[in-house]
Specification:
The protein has a single domain (31-162, 209-352), classed as Immunoglobulin-like (Sandwich). The protein contains 6 helices and 23 strands. The chain has helices at residues 2-5, 11-14, 28-37, 173-178, 186-192, 341-352, and strands at 43-52, 57-63, 69-77, 81-88, 108-109, 112-114, 120-124, 130-135, 140-145, 148-153, 160-161, 196-199, 202-205, 213-220, 224-227, 246-248, 270-275, 278-284, 290-297, 300-305, 311-316, 319-326, 331-336. The longest helix is centred in the C-terminal third of the chain and has 12 residues, at 341-352. This is Glucosidase alpha, neutral C. InterPro entries: Gal_mutarotase_sf_dom, Glyco_hydro_31_N_dom. Residues 73-292 form the Glycoside hydrolase family 31 N-terminal domain. GO terms for molecular function: alpha-1,4-glucosidase activity; carbohydrate binding.
């Protein structure tokens, strides 16, 4: 009788109060990127700017609205790895690039330009088995292995790059009138955290304005994703359409909730995708607060009916879209092409573990 009268206490009641941590809607750079992406502004490659230097191929990317160029660099790295960096071509000051994580400068291999269609650029490794097919307008990169597209970058047009600016109070009235891409009203600036962002008692002053970045990856026929620790979630990453994105941010969370996407302790921006016969990885080299959205489009079989007795069965390929958003820094990521799980682990270890190189 006494046992029945005792108040029931769940593990959830003992968990930390999530209100003391930020969720997506409280993160200004997330709100800015979502607002901007709804406008569908696109980037394109200026093919006449393509140059080949000793260890990389470089080209300009320009936004159709702002017309401010970005500099993209593609590297081939030993062990079937590709690296893509995107930075401001002429930043107001150097943007932060993560030191120390790469144990040494990766050994590069020459990427060979191949003939492609008008409006595109194709770069292949020395064997010709792996290729980066770069479409100029709109900007897109397809990673092709043995004539099969394994991964597409910016296929959803979610490339986002905020340029450093001079302090808004130092701008002239004329410059403010010419600014069309961002609403500079006081109310909107405060809501989007353009120059100052508040959370609780903490105030983040942004001397050179917002500087967040974002990019999408489409993984063809991959439905099983893992990684981006640490979270008290299932081993396989879940879709984030109906809730918060996975948050990568170093926290010391005591009594965290289980089956929750909030970040705990350390963060590692390393994601694995697996399907029958292939494993690949994405290593997003950025140390700032990062959000990762995941959306899987399952395969669907359907029948295409034509006039007459002919009917063709087709199958829509499944795809998983991964959208990375970081608060600052540059876009710098590695495509680990596998093809086996052990190959991917070896490729990641080659970049981050000195023991692999000895």
């Amino acid at each position: 009788m006494e046992a029945a009268e005792k108040e029931e206490i769940s593990v959830k009641d003992e968990a930390v109060d999530k209100n003391i941590f930020r969720d997506c809607n409280r993160i200004a750079f997330y709100r800015r990127q979502k607002q901007w992406l709804s406008k569908k502004s696109t980037y394109q490659v200026l093919l006449d700017s393509v140059t080949t230097v000793e260890d990389s191929t470089r080209f300009q990317i320009i936004n159709e609205a702002s017309k401010v160029p970005l500099l993209a660099e593609i590297y081939g790295i030993e062990g079937n790895i590709f690296r893509l960096k995107i930075n401001e071509e002429s930043p107001l000051k150097p943007r932060y690039e993560v030191p120390d994580v790469l144990t040494s400068k990766p050994s590069t291999v020459r990427l060979i330009p191949c003939s492609g269609d008008t409006g595109s650029l194709i770069l292949a490794d020395e064997k010709g088995d792996l290729k980066c097919h770069i479409t100029a307008n709109p900007f897109k990169v397809d990673l092709v292995s043995e004539e099969e597209v394994v991964m597409s970058i910016n296929s959803l047009g979610q490339l986002y790059f905020e340029h450093l600016q001079i302090l808004h109070k130092q701008r002239t009235a004329k410059e403010n009138e010419e600014e069309t891409s961002v609403d500079t009203s006081q109310e909107n600036q405060e809501d989007l955290g353009l120059w100052e962002e508040k959370f609780g008692k903490f105030v983040d002053i942004k001397a050179n304005g917002p500087s967040s970045i974002g990019l999408d990856f489409s993984l063809h026929e991959f439905e099983h994703l893992y990684g981006i620790p640490q979270h008290a979630e299932s081993h396989q990453l879940k879709n984030t359409e109906d809730g918060d994105a996975y948050r990568l941010y170093n926290l010391d969370v005591y009594g965290y909730q289980i089956y929750d996407k909030m970040g705990i302790y350390g963060s590692v921006p390393y994601l694995l995708a697996h399907k029958l016969g292939r494993t690949i990885g994405i290593f997003w080299l950025n140390a700032s607060e990062t959000l990762v959205e995941i959306n899987t489009e399952p395969a669907v079989e359907y029948t295409l009916t034509q006039i007459g007795p002919v009917a063709a069965k087709q199958k829509a390929r499944s795809r998983t879209h991964v959208h990375w958003m970081s608060e600052s820094g540059i876009i710098d990521f590695f495509m680990l092409t596998g093809p086996t799980p052990s190959d991917v682990f070896r490729q990641y270890s080659r970049l981050t573990d000195i023991g692999e190189k000895q």
